[in-house]
Amino acid sequence: MMNNNDSTVSGYDKTALVLDPLDNVAVALVPLQKGDRCVIRFPDRLDELTAEEAIEFGHKIALKDFEANEPVMKYGEEIGKMCTAIHKGCWIHNHNMYCERGLK
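Structure tokens predicted for UxaA family hydrolase (104 residues):
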């Protein structure tokens, strides 16, 4: 874990942003390729992780391992649930996440 509060970290140009401390996903600020190490910018700290697959700009990257049906948190709110289990660093999008809003 990185303990740097600076928004730039020498040697890293791959970054993702956590919008709320309750979030368990980050938003990719650049396209990520499988194996890219990127800095995760939290509101109060920096951390890092490795992308487990390609993730497009603006898409979500898992900050933890998820089980099927586990809530996905973004903006401090539940935005959906996982269809399947995935690992930290994986891409989260509508191919592996569902939302019950509007279905009830």
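The chain has a mean pLDDT of 88.
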